Amino acid sequence: MVATPHLFRLQFSVQSLVQDQINKASRLIPSSRITVTQAKKLRWVLIFLSLLTSGYHGNLVAAAIILVADVVYNDLGFSTWWFTKSLLNAVGYVGFQYGAVTIASATNDPIDNQVFGLVITFGFLVFTTTHVQDFYDAEGDQAVGRQTAATLYPKLSRVLAAMSISAWAMALPIIWDITLMPSTIFTLLGTFVAGRFILLSGRKSDETSFLHYNIGILIGCILPAFREVRHLA
């Protein structure tokens, strides 16, 4: 599983060199630190390492989910439409989460229904909000003809993103039965991020907002731990 997250970034650079030259010129291929041919070879090395380490940890299911999502997303061109782009991002994150909780459980037994529910809930969160990454990529997406929510519905997509982020920020602590302090912090952060996407636009502002969004995603991943700590107290 260690190598798997790098597959998305690597393959995205191979398939979207034009876009990366506009949006992410510091990446390996646009900055000429690695060639496309070398990147393709490295991708297969990472796939092999991912399957090897995942098999060792009893996590082949999670690796398979991520790798299938990667192939469908990049090689089959499903990243060019906003709906399938968001859906496959969510599937990939579910794979990451499933693999992480399986390893954390220190057992090869299937995760229980409660934990599985947490993973699926997180997948829905990503599916309904992950298009925020496209706001600062809009120029590059237009250059390669990618039909993202940000390019097709620039104003509506911001409103929907803000509404979704705010809703999840309030709902997750309730769904996961989290204590008051972490719930308040998470809800305030979600409200702050939602407000940024509505009130601020432009590449730099959207990059900063996306950074805050990812901090919120990270906190969302560890929120259930607060419930477990309370139950152990």
Automatic annotation (TrEMBL):
The keyword Transmembrane helix applies. It holds the Pfam family UbiA. GO terms for cellular component: membrane. Keywords: Membrane, Transmembrane, Transmembrane helix. GO terms for molecular function: transferase activity, transferring alkyl or aryl (other than methyl) groups. It comes from the Eukaryota. It is a multi-pass membrane protein. This is UbiA prenyltransferase. The lineage of its organism: Eukaryota, Fungi, Dikarya, Basidiomycota, Agaricomycotina.
